[in-house]
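JOB MANIFEST
job_type = single_chain_structure
chain_count = 1
residues = 309
[input]
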Amino acid sequence: MWSRNVASVCRQRTAVCLRAPSRSLASVAEAPSPSAAPAPSSSSTSDASTSKVILNAAVVLNRSPILTRTPTLFERAYYAYQSRIRRALFNPFPTEFYFKTGSLLEKKFAKEETLREREAFGGPWTFKRRKQGPSQMDEDGILIASPDQMENMGEEPVEPPAPRIHESDRTGDVKSLDRMGERNLYLLVRAKDVTGKEVWRFPQGGLQEGEFLHQAAQRDLQTECGINMDTWIVGKKPIAVYQPSLPENVKKSLGGELYTFFLKAHILAGQVRPDGKNVTDFAWLTKQEIEPRVEKDYWASVKDILSDF
């Protein structure tokens, strides 16, 4: 009898313990939270719906390097080491098979081969020139043939290579596409921004209704820089975005926030021919030359998309 009473009491207490949490959880879920955010008012909804975004498409027009970059000291040492290994392992060149014995061409090849051996291996000895006059030997000790001798050998006169430093580099002409042949150059134009201030920037313009960014970029580039250029827009997606910090009165006059998306392009031929109305000046500049010309916030948006070389 006593065991039955104890069992009944334990069952009643267990049922109470199991039902209590369910009631407490239900009450918490049903009670409204005091920290719940109120419903948005109609005024804030109308302000969000009336705010607009003004989009511009800018073109980062690039002229790729036209000269191979000057090798560093480490690269020169590596190439010299590889040249010594290659010359030490290759078979002797059969000169008697390709050149007539005692011919001028054989002598020229022998002089050039001696110079290549000296450049590859060096050594305590030095190459001594023969005293034959300045017209027969060049500054490297290579035998120089006259035009008649070159014609008899069936060879055309070899023109010396052009200098790596262009005339525009010496004169400081930043409008020339031939300057800085080893570097990447970018087109910057001088024009007025939305506040009426003269600034240096990339060619840009607004979007028309139903127009894509890459289409607007091509059209705005021709509008500001003329049609005398053959350019190629690399892709349809922008590579950077810039949001200027504008005064409130300028934002009201524009009708919203201004965003400028940058698209990459290459120039293939031609030159900039601005009309002088919207664009007053232009320059082909390296990354290091762009930084002091543009605004600080503008530079922070575009510096990572420009090449250091």
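[summary]
Confidence is low (pLDDT under 50) at residues 1-7, 9-50, 124-135.
Residues 169 and 179 are 5 Å apart (CA to CA).
exit_status = 0
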